[in-house]
Amino acid sequence: MKFGHSFKEALQGESYPQHWVDKAIPYGQLKKLLGKVREELTRNGYDPDTLHRLLADHNAEYRLRVENSHILRPKLVVRPSASTICLRSDTVPKLLTGGELSTPASAPPKSSSVLLGNPTLSPPSLAQAQDAGWVDIPLDSDAKFFNILQTDVVELDSLQTQERQSMNDGIQLLGDEIARLARPRKGVIHIAKSDLYRWREIFELYLAAQVFFSTAETATGPRDSEKARKQLVWFQDEVNKRQLLQKFKLKASAEAYTHFLELNATLLKNFKFQELNRTAVTKIIKKFDKQTSLGVKAEFPKAMSSAPFIVGSIAKDICSQMACEVLSRVPQIVDYTCTICTHAGRSTSKFRPRPPPQPCVVVYPS
């Protein structure tokens, strides 16, 4: 199945909110516009083979620049020595194998000639272009292509920012609730009102699952959405096998656990949507290069480096926030162990409250 069809089916079959789907990469529209880009290049004498040869010989460059207005501007430039002067404005420019500018014997006077299919370029402009070393090739279709692509990436950035803020708010509320439910209590009567041990075991399983990131030597780094889904299912299965939910002493703990799962499910859906659209961007850029030979695969991410959608990961940001606001709120035994007594080898270890928590910084493998 072609990617365009699978992309459309994935958007419709994953129960994404409609406002998410509306901001997805318009892969079909970009694919149609890509055909016009190739037609315009060919019409001006720059078919894929010609462009490939010019780029390989460093006689042409395709530049992607972000202007002060934050608009991405593509530009094709060639060296004058690699082009020829056309006889008429409607003549398709041809590239000489000798690499020198020349005019056929039957050509009219130089005053009526134009450069590279641009009827407005006069001989003085040609001289200036030669001095500068490059000649701009005016194109329209590629500007429209990258304008649509950049606009949609910016909209996806905005959507991702909104979703991240919404999840951060939910994480803070959940962290406060779990801190209350798992707070250590003194006395037999008060211990019965705490779910400290259940939450401690749940979070140990969650950390062992490494849902969104792996620290294993054989597979270090972020997981893809499918592997993350499997790890989240494994975590839930382990919690159910140990019947930890049935062991909760407080009804609010069961509600908090449900909220915790919902946050992870929401994060997984956001992560998968981001992954799907990133794949669409990669595919359409790859197709652009294949049909034009302009080689923007490496340049486009650099030009869009300020876009979190391209260079960031919502899963990484939210997991870091969850570790700080939720997982760290459940006290661990090691937090109350006196390291002096332990290292001294005494048989009776004493417990001391841990110092005030420092700002949490979680670093995941890049």
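Above is the first protein from milestone M3; the second protein from the same milestone is given next.
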Amino acid sequence: MPLRADGVGTGPYGRLAADGLRYGPAFRGMRAAWRHGEELYADVALPEAVRASGPEADGPEFVLHPALFDAALHALALDGLVKDGSGAVGPAAAGLSLPFAFGGVRVHTTGVQRLRVRVGPGPDGQAAVELTDETGSPVATVRSLTLRPLPRTGPATADPVTGALHRTDWVPLTESVRWRAPVAMARWGVLGAAGTRLVDTLAPPGSGVPVYRGPAACDASAAVVVAPCPPPDTTGGARDQAAGLLRAVSAVRHPGFEPGEALPATLDALVTAQAIAVRAAAAEGPLVLLGRSAGGWVAHAVAERLESEGAAPAAVVLVDTYPPVTATGVRRSPR
């Protein structure tokens, strides 16, 4: 049964081009194609434009010309567009499939410019290809040919001006993604004296970071003041002011990592243990919880537990933490 391209373009290559597969003159070697049951047959010849050019004077001659070998497989693409039993080619219902991998390739003779092609079922659902000359003598065989579908993202129409499938264009931004001025960062200062490691690192000359010699010198221009620990040597009221700038920091470890220490059996047991440890470390004072990565989930769960017990933390800081994904695949945002 012939594979026709009636009324679409000019011959089979006009139909393939209409569906997004364009071949230049050097690769239009398929003369005719047929299907018989599960087998495809084709008649291909090396295009005149390629024959006239001949091999390069200083280049190798081809054992099997790549343009001829490529044309031998074009029937596979054309066959992918057959939409009914009449052999007429229509819209790509099955889609285009192109050669992807070859196995067991053997060349039996060279110098051939015209081929008879037979494509039949191969091993493991692949295709097998036999190429012969006009007398039926073997030219080449492909034991297994793997095809891959050509991705289809829309009509394959070329730009009429440049001939390109893609072009640049100006697209107005929506209001939600328009540029906005960056949010001003909170200003911070350093408590200490010039020449100390903390000041030289965080407030080098020319940085504009204010340096305060003592707690009494701190003003409202800095929202955050970084103080050394222990604080500078101060006395009297200055020491009391310095103490007001400092916060005790406690690291609460996960249970189950010491030798002989059992891991909590459930997440609820882990949260209970961590809540007890946090309350013991914070005593009766206000506290801020900080958790990093997966530890952020635990910190948030502990904060919820403490809140339910009437001891909610002043804040919860999550560093590099993402909301956990529920069983339905939806991220659950922390409250």
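Note on the second protein: The chain has eight helices and eleven strands.
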